[in-house]
Amino acid sequence: MSNENIIREIDEELRSDRARNLWRRFGPYVIGAAVAIVLIVAVKEGWDWWQSSNSAQSSDQFYAALQLADGTDAEAAKKALDEVIAANHGGYPILARFREAALLAKDGKTAEAVAAYDALAAGQPNKYLRELALVLAANLLVDGGDVAQVEQRIGGLVGSASPMRNAAREALGLTKYKAGDLAGARQSFEDAANDPQASQELRSRLTVYLAQLVAEGVAAPVAEAAATETPVVVDPSTAAPAATSVGDGPALDTTPAPEAAPAMEAPAMQAAPAMEAVPPASTEAPVAPAN
Fold first, then answer.
1. How many domains is the chain built from?
2. Compositional bias (Low complexity) at which positions (predicted)?
């Protein structure tokens, strides 16, 4: 056997011994890590299955509660919704709380419904659900005409950044109308009507509101004022006289005669019939949209 073969065999033995030593030293850790990974995957899959199963059950309970809420047994509906809230699976508890507040409003318990919406807004981390709860609470306060209470809830939503801005503007405008602040109501309605993202249904309601305000003597909206603006009449007495030359003869004075002045008043009189289209004044408040 040559020295080269002996060196090769010794090198292989050393490598084998080194590998056995490494395995004895780190093998248990490798096996433990593999077992931990398998267990983590199994637990996650089991948790997902359990959550899905409970969410499906909560879904069935929630829709059963909605059917009861659409009926006449309010107590049974509330009990079913309470069960969904107690189960606390998925997003159904939040939906159940919104439905419970709507049931209170339906039964005429306005103060309790407003308190329920306020509680939802106070404990809701989701920005959009919180704003929705505030707008629903404000809608219930419209008939009371308490502008301060409504502004306390939705005053920060009427800006251009909130997706609920037009609903907030409508509720605030109706509240101001109820309180007698017709100019403030018109401004709120115009802000919503001028928003390019306002829905067609909202625009239809705003048209009715603004027409009612115009009938009650509030200044017309900007678009209507521009359409009915009186044209400018030029006073002939202040106009520069014009001269016309015929051939080589003297210039002819074409200044209108004094008796022609009344004819210039015709444009101003033509604008008057447009105001007859304004509907008669009504003392009824605009109907607030259903929640």
1. 1
2. 256-281
